[in-house]
Amino acid sequence: MGRGVTGLILKAMRADDYVFTVLGAEAVSEHYHRVRFDGGEFLQRNPWFPTMWVRLWIPKSGTATTDEDAGDLAQRGYTIIEPEGSEFTIEFAIHDGPAPRWALDAAPGDRIAATMMGADLTIPEHPAPSEYILVGDAASIPAINSILGTAAVPCRVFLEYQHDGERDLPVHADHVTWIARENRGAALVSAVLAAGLPSDAFLFVVAETRATREITRTAKRDLGLAKDRIKSQAYWLDRG
Ligand SMILES: Cc1cc2nc3c(=O)[nH]c(=O)nc-3n(C[C@H](O)[C@H](O)[C@H](O)COP(=O)(O)OP(=O)(O)OC[C@H]3O[C@@H](n4cnc5c(N)ncnc54)[C@H](O)[C@@H]3O)c2cc1C
Known about the structure:
GO molecular function: oxidoreductase activity
CATH architecture of the largest domain: Beta Barrel
Bound molecules: flavin-adenine dinucleotide
Strand order of the largest sheet: 4-3-7-1-2-6-5
Number of helices: 6
Strand content: 25-35%
Number of strands: 12
Protein name: FAD-binding FR-type domain-containing protein
Mean pLDDT: 93
Pfam families: FAD_binding_9, SIP
Largest sheet: 7 strands, antiparallel
CATH superfamily of the largest domain: Translation factors
InterPro entries: FAD-bd_FR_type, FNR_nucleotide-bd, Riboflavin_synthase-like_b-brl, SIP_FAD-bd, SIP_fam, SIP_rossman_dom
Low-confidence stretches: none
Helix content: 10-25%
Organism: Tsukamurella pseudospumae
């Protein structure tokens, strides 16, 4: 029961714990859901920055609860957007998993535990990137939008989709290249690499594990992007 080994490790690392309270929830589409939270002191103690994320402690049952520590919990990363005072929003891409089940069930007054540790974004300044190349899917639209909202250079956006409706989700870019998820992410990898990754760009790649690794490896090994010009993080693992 509880947070298991992961929770013990984070505690030993002195990670910061919070409780978020649900203020409201709305369906954006069949496959995308938004939940508004009050985070108490969370944003006061952790000033917001683009791509900021937390580790939510999701009840494995997927059932929302008024008790933040009820049942067996699994840790899942989620991006904080639209901060205002102590409030913020989290957007959930919907698939068959405990986190989306929790979000679909969430109602005002429900509480969820969260841990802040490991989130960062450093973009090199000398020289500044010629452009940002942002690669992800529905799960990373919140993070990608948060970069698009603050970027001072041109951005190219590549998003993989699993449902046609995802192409209607709001992405704050003039142009997005949408790629249907095929062959466990291989189509996304091909599209990004074929479009070209200049060595003076900043690459933000946060898709499914396999595509994220493949694009990152090629960018470093074959295309000469320096380590500090790449932010790469697998946002989910295809267990299908
Ligand atoms: C730093 C960070 C920030 C993130 N921010 C967000 C965010 O803001 N919004 C968001 O929706 N997600 C976000 N994610 C991704 C999210 O944490 C994962 O999708 C997570 O696995 C969801 O947990 P789960 O309980 O639904 O499913 P799991 O128990 O992890 O998986 C259950 C099943 O669902 C499948 N699955 C998991 N994720 C996806 C997916 N995205 N698409 C299709 N199938 C999937 C798995 O392959 C498995 O078959 C973020 C991840 C990280 C690391």
